[in-house]
Amino acid sequence: MVLLISACWVVALAVAGLPALGWNCLGRLTACSIVLPLYAKDYVVFVVSVFTVILGSIVAIYAHIYCVARSSHAERAGAQSLVLLKTVTIVLGAFIICWLPAFVVLLLDAACGRLACPVLAQASYFFAFATLNSAVNPLIYTLRSRDMRREILRLLCCWGMLGRGRRAQHCRRPLRSSSSPEPCTHKHDLPTAPIMTAACATSV
């Protein structure tokens, strides 16, 4: 595992360092990318191609794992493993949806001449949409994880207690696993907030 992670970092640093080693458009401005100035168009195509190959390999691997897990020969695979696999698949799908428009814009940048593709002037919106992937991932993990839903509910209940001037001793409780659920507060702790109490005392 350490070797695999180290190899990933070495490849990433090597690809990122190619412009500094000479693969750039300095001295030949007509070859510069419109969206990413100072980067050569052929370098942008190379990076997108490498990333597409890696992403395609990851999708193929996860698809194979999912098929094996769903097959009749995988009775030993528990329901929790399938849930985790589905969560990772959703995260991967969200990544593709968010970043695909940006990759398309980069390929158009390499194929189109200057002022030939007006959509390139709006490239910042596509990259802004791509960065939303970082905000989507926590939501996916929260919606798919029973423990995280329970922990967020506990925090919301504790914020409600602090807002009412109550002590926050229940807020210091550690996250419990789904196999041993524990409500964030007892029903007699919040007599003035029956809706919040019912929500806190009910497992997600």
Automatic annotation (TrEMBL):
Name under which the protein is recorded: Sphingosine 1-phosphate receptor 2
Gene designation per UniProt: S1PR2
GO CC entries: plasma membrane
Signal peptide coordinates: 1-16
Superkingdom assignment: Eukaryota
Residues in coiled coil: none
GO molecular function: sphingosine-1-phosphate receptor activity
PANTHER family: G-PROTEIN COUPLED RECEPTOR
Topology in the lipid bilayer: Multi-pass membrane protein
Lineage, uppermost ranks: Eukaryota, Metazoa, Chordata, Craniata, Vertebrata
Record keywords: Cell membrane, Disulfide bond, G-protein coupled receptor, Glycoprotein, Membrane, Receptor, Signal, Transducer, Transmembrane, Transmembrane helix
Residue ranges occupied by any G-protein coupled receptors family 1 profile domain in the UniProt entry: 1-141
SUPFAM superfamilies from the UniProt entry: Family A G protein-coupled receptor-like
Organism encoding this protein: Alligator mississippiensis (American alligator)
